[in-house]
């Protein structure tokens, strides 16, 4: 029985973990309707597992050192039949039925005409995000997805190169992104907050660093944010920012990156129109600070080995300053909006 | 059979003639010193085989420790990204392909003949070939790690990541050619095991008295026959794509990345049970001995084994729950995953019942078995969890799954294996392993395992994905990972202690072993030497040593069948598959260079091909075939007069048709090739459902007339070979009608292939253009893959006929050739029907 | 002694063991293939078609299992008298496998009652 006790203890400690604040990527701390339904199933399954394990341990214990009577009962073929066939048939039928019922419930959840549609394309090793507003122009972004709270979101998932898998544990299950196919995922965040996600299908090289953040915000704020995000990039407001923009265009950054409203219209890499408004740089490998932006420009292969961006080591410190200032300035006018 | 339960008179009388045993020993003597590589005996090869598999276990385990070191703390820089990716790929690949499957196969090669009362495996040289191919291929494959040439696409090798576009290095080619080749060696072993279990059991050992380990090995080998061809086809397709651009997995040209996943997991899921079942068989052997009572529910356990064998083929999609396949399809496989847990439940409670019906002795094997019961049950339960579709959407590809399958595989297979090492060591070694060290080994391994892997359930639930080389500190997975790492080193300490135990106590010996120290009831516990028991007993129960008093003594005294060598060669008895009635005396080959050299050259062929050294590769290939021909030349020895094996039973020394053990091997081989072809037919139809727009309009297809021509050539070829069989000369040579007809039949097959390829080319089909062209030429490729050996074999048959080694009586070589030939004709016709008929039907 | 070994039976008994689980596998393959084909075709309402297909396949599979069970229980006159206990042993195993496979077939069919056709992950 010692094993059963330690098992319960560890499961109990996981409950405490789930209760703590550092649960931005835990399926035990659900923040969305889908994730909550699955977490409910998870606890049911854990209970079932502990129950069956306890039976097996108890039976083994009795078989070794139990009374003559209990051992005689355990040694019968009919007992093998009862515990090994009849009992599992009944319990597993119930579990299977519940699992199928829950699958049905999840299929129906968030199947809403008014769902917000967002396309996410997995690329080695970042996420291309496009907000598909009905009637409006698509708004491109990368690695950070802002969604309205309590609104069903319909994700369209595609892959540009190899297979990836889109997964935000706090909000729900994962779905693979497969070249040549479009897959779908519906999520609904119930509370505002920032939820971390990560590519779950090994996609080579820097798979470990292919993370993303979903920021759930009140619906009205989200609408306002999306409106601003659809606008061209904020123009440089100071000399240093202007110098940065000139450098950005002169160094050829625009061959791969887009900054809407400027000549930079490359599509190979992430859209940077809203870069200053993001929370991190290098696909969630580092917080968004001046130093980290510079680091990514000069030592990108150290930060995220194998990424397609060349290291711009020839830039002088002052030039890097200007470039970073420009990039950090790229955000809609009201930073908290 | 009642009359055999009380043996009033023994088949052979005492005293045995002087010198009989010495002659037997001489016939079976192993070559000395380095010439041991020419030996083919199952005890020697089996020992090497187990040792090599354990070497790969240690190597892959070392890689696991490197992985754990890297993950011990967040943002660690101990290993670089690329190195880590190579290491985790190699860890999985080596553990699955070079350790887990080979080691259970090796245990089968080592133990089965002794357990079944045979002198050796039915095809000793095939077993030796399989072993050497595996050793050389495996070592070369592993060493790629030291040259930064190892694959880094994961052990599951999903395209398009592993396509030439995203993995241009030859690491992936090493995986595809190396692993594909090692699978072939696994299939060779499986054929050996199936024929061995069904045809070389001791007289009276009916299927319901067969040791449970033999049952599991039979199901194991049967599963390999149907599961491995799927991955062999997958590796062929991916290598064709990488080398020649045939777009099987490229969506833009009509291919589909998911095809690989279907084929891979159609192999991969059964593979888990392929690994587990033999381990379960070991448990079913060890528990009865340790509890001192027969297995409770023998029947139920056999039911469980057969059910597992089938049910495990219906689970493959449960590795694809997150691929966006319709939920209803997923639920079919969720249900199948539930179904497969029933047989495991039966076995667990049958083992507990056996423990309850006897008295469990607290030995090292017992401890490992109890550890197995706990760990495996927990792994099975998390298996039920991941079989629930919504739950799997969350935990799929997280550390929860890593924990789950290590519980299943390490718990389900490594713990029983260590129990088996401790249990069976005295049957092969002068000394048993130390009980004291063994118990320490167990507690270190058991504790270490749970400390390493239990926390991974939690890291997974907390969101840590698999196959990440690092993770940021903010995720707070650091503590649990550190605990896992410490557990892993504790586990490794247990393994190290086991190695010390081996060094101190394992003294393999062919004739002088520690013997039946556990009081086991099955035949491997009579006094066995390289040739097995002195005489082959009559078996009247499932635990003969318990039920038949004095059996061990009488067997050793030579009172049963075949107490010496009758024909002056290595021999074993062939018995009927169900009742184990003696049918004929099989003369077995002795040591020789050909299996060893053939294996070396075959391995060289594949490895040189990988590094694109085409000419040396072809030379090696030709040499390998030459070795095979030399090897086969003195097979099928000519019939002798019937011999007396004792007890008044006179047996022939030659059998043809379905009586022959080699007929059975050929049938199993045809099942393998048939499965491979069915996997191709599945791929064809599957890809059509994915991209039907790539199928040409009927009017642009190759003309029907060309298909009719090919079919005509094929059918005539078959008819010609039937006629050849009729004119097979009796003895004296008159004319060469037989040789001419055989050659003509082979030519017809080749002509049909050429006709088909040229018709498709003229119709404008090209393999690299789109998926339809690729599939059309794949059919031709698979045809060619059959035609090539048929040409070689036809030449061999003709040669033997000319050399006077083939005739109306001595005809097994021709019979087997005919089986393969007619099968190939059938496969070709099916291929023509599919390639020419289906587009017209669908268009 | 040699008389004991004369009752050599063909492989039929062994292969017979595999019939029930093979039916289970055929059923699974058939319903899976049916759904794959239906969903590969043009999109329309398939609910009824699929339900009928699964119902028919399931009925057929269970029918086969019942026939197998009946024939195993009553081997009839064609089969020569079983040699000893081995035959009874084979019959018991065949029956148990039929029971297990039957549960499996029903489990496979069960989700059709709950889930829509061709609808993929949420």
Automatic annotation (TrEMBL), chain B:
Lineage top rank: taxon: Bacteria
What keyword terms does UniProt attach to this protein? Cell membrane, Copper, Electron transport, Heme, Iron, Membrane, Metal-binding, Respiratory chain, Translocase, Transmembrane, Transmembrane helix, Transport
A matching Pfam family: COX1
State the GO CC annotations.
Answer: plasma membrane
Transmembrane annotation, as ranges = 44-67, 87-111, 123-147, 174-200, 212-238, 272-291, 298-318, 330-355, 367-391, 403-425, 437-458, 478-500, 593-611, 617-633, 663-687, 707-728, 740-759, 771-798, 819-838
- Cytochrome oxidase subunit I profile domain boundaries: 28-552
Subcellular location, principal: membrane
Keyword Iron-sulfur listed? The answer is: no
Report the enzyme's class at the first EC level: translocase
Instruction: State which pathway it belongs to.
Output: Energy metabolism; oxidative phosphorylation
* Subcellular locations according to the entry: Cell membrane
**GO: which molecular function terms?**
cytochrome-c oxidase activity; heme binding; metal ion binding
EC numbers on record: 7.1.1.9
One biological process term in Gene Ontology = oxidative phosphorylation
Give the catalytic activity: 4 Fe(II)-[cytochrome c] + O2 + 8 H(+)(in) = 4 Fe(III)-[cytochrome c] + 2 H2O + 4 H(+)(out)
Membrane topology term: Multi-pass membrane protein
PANTHER family of this UniProt entry?
A: CYTOCHROME BO(3) UBIQUINOL OXIDASE SUBUNIT 1, CYTOCHROME C OXIDASE SUBUNIT 1
Question: Which protein family is it in?
Answer: Belongs to the heme-copper respiratory oxidase family.
Report the protein name in the record.
Answer: cytochrome-c oxidase
């Amino acid at each position: 029985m010692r094993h059963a006790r330690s098992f319960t203890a560890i499961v109990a400690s996981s409950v405490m973990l789930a209760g703590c604040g550092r649960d931005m990527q835990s399926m035990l701390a659900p923040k969305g309707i889908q994730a909550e339904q699955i977490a409910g199933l998870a606890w049911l399954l854990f209970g079932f597992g502990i129950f069956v394990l306890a039976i097996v341990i108890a039976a083994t214990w009795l078989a070794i050192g139990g009374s003559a009577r209990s051992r005689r009962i355990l040694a019968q073929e009919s007992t093998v039949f009862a515990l090994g066939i009849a009992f599992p048939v009944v319990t597993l039928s119930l579990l299977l039925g519940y699992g199928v019922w829950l699958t049905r419930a999840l299929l129906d959840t968030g199947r809403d005409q008014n769902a917000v549609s967002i396309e996410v394309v997995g690329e080695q090793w970042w996420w291309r995000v496009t907000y598909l507003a009905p009637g409006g122009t698509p708004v491109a972004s990368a690695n950070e997805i802002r969604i309205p709270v309590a609104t069903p979101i319909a994700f369209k998932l595609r892959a540009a190169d190899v297979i990836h898998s889109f997964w935000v544990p706090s909000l729900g299950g994962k779905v693979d992104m497969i070249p040549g196919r479009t897959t779908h995922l519906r999520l609904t965040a119930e509370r505002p907050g920032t939820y971390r996600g990560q590519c779950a299908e090994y996609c080579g090289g820097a798979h470990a660093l292919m993370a993303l953040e979903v920021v759930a915000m009140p619906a009205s704020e989200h609408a306002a944010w999306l409106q601003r995000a659809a606008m061209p990039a904020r123009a440089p407001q100071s000399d240093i920012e202007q110098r940065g923009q000139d450098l950005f265009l002169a160094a050829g950054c625009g061959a791969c990156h887009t900054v809407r409203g400027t000549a930079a219209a490359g599509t190979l890499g992430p859209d940077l129109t809203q870069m200053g408004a993001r929370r991190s740089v290098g696909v969630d490998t580092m917080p968004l600070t001046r130093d980290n932006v510079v680091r990514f420009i000069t030592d990108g292969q150290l930060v995220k080995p194998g990424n397609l961006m060349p290291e711009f080591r020839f830039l002088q410190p002052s030039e890097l300053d200007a470039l970073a200032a420009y990039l950090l300035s790229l955000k809609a006018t009201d930073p908290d909006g | 059979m009642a009359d055999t339960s009380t043996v009033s008179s023994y088949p052979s009388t005492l005293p045995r003639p002087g010198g009989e045993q010495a002659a037997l020993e001489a016939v079976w003597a192993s070559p000395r010193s380095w010439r041991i590589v020419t030996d083919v005996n199952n005890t020697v090869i089996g020992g090497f085989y187990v040792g090599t598999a354990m070497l790969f276990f240690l190597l892959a385990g070392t890689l696991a420790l490197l992985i754990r070191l890297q993950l011990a703390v967040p943002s660690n820089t101990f290993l670089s990204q690329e190195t880590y990716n190579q290491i985790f790929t190699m860890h999985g690949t080596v553990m699955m392909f070079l350790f887990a499957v080979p080691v259970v196969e090796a245990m089968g090669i080592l133990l089965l003949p002794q357990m079944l009362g045979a002198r050796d495996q039915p095809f000793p040289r095939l077993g030796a070939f399989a072993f050497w191919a595996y050793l050389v291929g495996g070592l070369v494959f592993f060493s790629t790690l030291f040259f930064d040439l190892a694959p880094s696409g994961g052990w599951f090798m999903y395209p398009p990541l592993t396509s030439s576009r995203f993995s241009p290095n030859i690491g992936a080619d090493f995986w595809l050619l190396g692993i594909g080749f090692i699978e072939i060696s696994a299939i060779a072993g499986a054929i050996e095991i199936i024929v061995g279990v069904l045809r070389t059991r001791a007289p009276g050992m009916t299927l319901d008295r067969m040791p449970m380990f033999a049952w599991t090995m039979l199901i194991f080998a049967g599963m390999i026959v149907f599961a491995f061809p799927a991955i062999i086809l997958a590796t062929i397709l991916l290598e064709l794509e990488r080398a020649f651009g045939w777009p099987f997995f490229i969506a833009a040209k009509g291919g589909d990345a998911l095809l690989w996943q279907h084929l891979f997991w159609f192999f991969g899921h059964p593979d888990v049970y392929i690994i587990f079942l033999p381990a379960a068989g070991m448990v079913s052997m060890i528990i009865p001995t340790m509890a001192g009572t027969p297995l409770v529910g023998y029947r139920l356990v056999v039911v469980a084994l057969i059910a597992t064998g089938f049910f495990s083929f219906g689970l493959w999609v449960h590795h694809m729950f997150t691929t966006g396949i319709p939920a209803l399809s997923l639920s079919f496989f969720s249900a199948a995953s539930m179904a497969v847990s029933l047989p495991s439940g039966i076995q667990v409670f049958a083992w507990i019942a056996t423990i309850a019906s006897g008295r469990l002795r607290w030995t090292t094997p017992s401890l490992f078995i109890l550890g197995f019961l706990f760990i495996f049950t927990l792994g099975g339960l998390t298996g039920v969890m991941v079989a629930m579709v919504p739950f799997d959407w969350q935990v799929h590809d997280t550390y929860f799954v890593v924990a789950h399958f290590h519980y299943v595989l390490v718990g389900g297979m490594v713990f029983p294996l260590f129990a088996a090492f401790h249990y069976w060591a005295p049957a092969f070694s002068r000394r048993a392993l130390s009980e004291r060290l063994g118990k320490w080994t167990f507690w270190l391994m058991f504790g270490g395992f749970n400390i390493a892997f239990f926390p991974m359930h939690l890291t997974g639930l907390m969101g840590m994905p698999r196959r990440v080389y690092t993770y940021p500190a903010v995720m707070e997975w650091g503590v649990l990972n550190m605990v896992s790492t410490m557990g892993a080193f504790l586990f490794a300490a247990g393994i190290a202690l086991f190695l010390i135990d081996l060094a101190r106590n394992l003294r393999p010996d062919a004739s002088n072993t520690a013997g039946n120290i556990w009081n086991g009831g099955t035949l491997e516990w009579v006094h066995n030497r390289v040739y097995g028991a002195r005489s082959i007993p009559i078996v009247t129960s499932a635990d003969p040593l318990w039920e038949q008093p004095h059996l061990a003594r009488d067997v050793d005294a030579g009172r049963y069948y075949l107490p010496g060598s009758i024909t002056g060669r290595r021999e074993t008895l062939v018995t009927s598959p169900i009742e184990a009635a003696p049918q004929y005396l099989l003369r077995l080959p002795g040591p020789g260079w050909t299996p060893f050299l053939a294996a070396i050259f075959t391995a060289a062929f594949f490895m040189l091909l990988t590094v694109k050294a085409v000419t040396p590769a072809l030379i090696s290939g030709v040499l390998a075939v030459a070795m095979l021909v030399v090897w086969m030349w003195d097979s099928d020895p000519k019939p002798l007069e019937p011999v007396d094996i004792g007890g008044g039973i006179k047996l022939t020394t030659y059998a043809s048709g379905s009586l022959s053990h080699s007929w059975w091997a050929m049938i199993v081989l045809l099942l393998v090739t048939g499965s491979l072809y069915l996997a191709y037919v599945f791929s064809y139809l599957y890809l059509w459902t994915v991209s039907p727009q790539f199928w040409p309009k009927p009017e642009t297809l190759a003309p029907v007339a060309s298909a009719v021509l090919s079919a005509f050539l094929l059918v005539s070829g078959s008819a010609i070979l039937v006629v050849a069989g009729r004119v097979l000369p009796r003895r004296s040579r008159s004319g060469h009608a037989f040789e001419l007809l055989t050659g003509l039949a082979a030519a017809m097959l080749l002509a049909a292939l050429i006709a088909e390829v040229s018709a498709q080319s003229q119709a404008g089909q090209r393999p690299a253009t789109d998926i339809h062209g690729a599939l059309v030429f794949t059919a031709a490729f698979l045809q060619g893959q059959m035609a090539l050996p048929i040409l070689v074999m036809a030449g061999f048959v003709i040669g033997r006929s000319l050399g006077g080694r083939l005739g109306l009586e001595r005809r097994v070589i021709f019979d087997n050739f005919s089986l393969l030939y007619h099968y190939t004709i059938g496969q070709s016709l099916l291929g023509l029907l599919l390639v020419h008929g289906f587009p017209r039907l669908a268009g | 002694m040699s008389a004991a070994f004369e009752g050599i039976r063909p492989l039929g008994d062994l292969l017979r063991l595999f019939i029930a689980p093979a039916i289970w596998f055929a059923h699974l393959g058939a319903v899976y293939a049916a759904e794959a084909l239906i969903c590969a075709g043009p999109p329309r309402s398939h609910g009824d078609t699929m339900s009928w297909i699964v119902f028919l396949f399931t009925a057929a599979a269970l029918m086969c299992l019942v026939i197998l069970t009946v024939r195993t229980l009553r081997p009839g006159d064609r089969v020569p008298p079983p040699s000893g206990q081995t035959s009874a042993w084979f019959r018991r195993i065949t029956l148990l496998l039929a029971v297990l496979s039957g549960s499996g077939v029903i489990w496979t069919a069960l989700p059709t009652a709950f889930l829509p056709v061709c609808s993929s992950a949420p």
